[in-house]
Structures are given as C-alpha cells and as structure tokens.
Amino acid sequence: MSIFPYTYYMISSFKITSNDDQIAVYAGLITSAFAFAEFSTGVVWGKLSDRIGRKPVLIGGLAGTGLSMMIFGFAPSLPIALLARALGGLLNGNIGVLQTTVAEMITVKEHQPRAYTIMPFVWCLGSILGPALGGALAQPCENYPALFARDTLFDRHPFLLPNLVCAIILAGGVLIGILFLEETHEEMKHNRDVGLEIGRWILTRLGGSQIQQPVFDKAGDANLDESQSLLEDELPPGYRTTDGSPRLPSSRAQSPESKSNAARENKPRGMPRAFSKQVVLNIVGYGILA
After folding, report:
1. What global pTM score does this model have?
2. Under the phi-then-psi rule, with left for phi > 0, alpha for psi from -120 to 50, and beta for the rest, what region is 244?
C-alpha cells in the first residue's frame, strides 16, 4: 500500500520511457506482481504451516516482506523493482495462515466474530496510514531539503526512505512475534519455544509477578491423575468404594479430545477436502470484489 503514491514517479526515474501510457502499464505490473505471487504461494504456505507450525510461517512472512521492501527501495531499474515485489508476494502468502491462527487461538465460538473483526480493522488502518506514509517520505531531498542534503544515500535512492521506515516497523513486528506470539498448532504448541520464554521473562521483570501457565503433557492433556487423586482425598470414606457400581464390559470411556482426534482422523484430507463448495464460493466472491 505504501508504494502506490510514488510508483509513477519511481518508474519515471528509471527513464525507460517518456510515454505516460507506458508508465501506467509498468505501474500496473509492479502492483500486480505482488498479488500474483501471493496468490501462487498461498496454499504452499498453508501446507508448510501444518508441518513446521503457524508461528515460523507468520514471522517468516514479515521478514520476507521487510527484505523485499529494502530491495525495492534500492531498485535501480524496473526489472529489480518487479523482482522485489514478486519476492514480497512469494514470501508473504500467509493470510490464510493468519486466519487459521486466530481460529485456533479463539476456541470459543461466541468470541470469534469479535476476534475476526480485528483483522479488517488493522487492514483498513494500514491502507490509510501506508499510502500517507509512503507519499510523505518519498523523495525526501526534494520535499525536505533542510533535513536531507543532496549527494547522499537518499538522493541516489529517492524512494528508499519510505521502504526503510516500513522495514523497521516490520522488524519490530518480527521481534514482537518471536517474543510474545504463541504457537497455535495442535501438535506443536506444547514444544519448547525459547523466544516465548524470553518474552515471558521480560514481562516478569517488567511486571514483577510470575506469569502462571497451565501444565500440559506432550499429548496436550492436563495432568488429570494428580487432580483426580486430590478429588478422591476430599470424598468421605463411604464414597470411595466402587463396589456395586454398574459396569458395562463392552463400553470404554473416551475423553472428548480422543473422540475429536478420532473424528479428525476419519475425515478426508487433501485438496478436495480444502476446496469445498463453500470455500470455492468464497474465493469467487472475493475475486469479484477485488
């Protein structure tokens, strides 16, 4: 979004053509390169997040966007600018991963609509601030001669400053993600996360109180044996026996987690399962709106 205000002037600075119509075509190519590359790798990033987790994919997307913006700011020609935009789309096709993370983080269905409204709000906020920031910081030697002198880095690369500022903001997002973003993948959220441990240590030092976390085993279930033994100690002696209780020899109790896991294993997987009728209709609807 931040490149839209100065894309025309950037292409003009490449001096590949003096025809305004051709400049408009090249500006459209730069804009669509990111979207096409992001579209091409969206499913790939989703599959990768199922293997390595949501957090590495989201953080990698932010880092890839920052890298592409730095290349775009230093681009001396149109092919490098197109390559930078395509690279940003290839490394940041994780919108679906972000929505999956929100769904896995907010398990109460009554709270999910409120959580999902945050994403379009942030997107609209970025759509407002991004172009304003890009237009205000582009060509700083011409717009702010008192602050940026000629024959400097920003004079040789007049469109570097807005990309540099955005890259710094993205670097802050990467740091926050490493320290405070929790993994939401069911099979990986209980693995050790050194970055999250450092973030909790920082919060403990700043807040002065220890953050209490529930204890889970590797399977993701709480330590039920200990709590069950505590409950049995509180019962009167007459209620501790199980003699005379009806037993069903063919029945076996199953936890809700084991039932959900069994149901999940019986469901078909793969691309046909992902692209259901409702998903295809949503894709077509978003495509028409875009």
Report:
1. 0.72
2. left
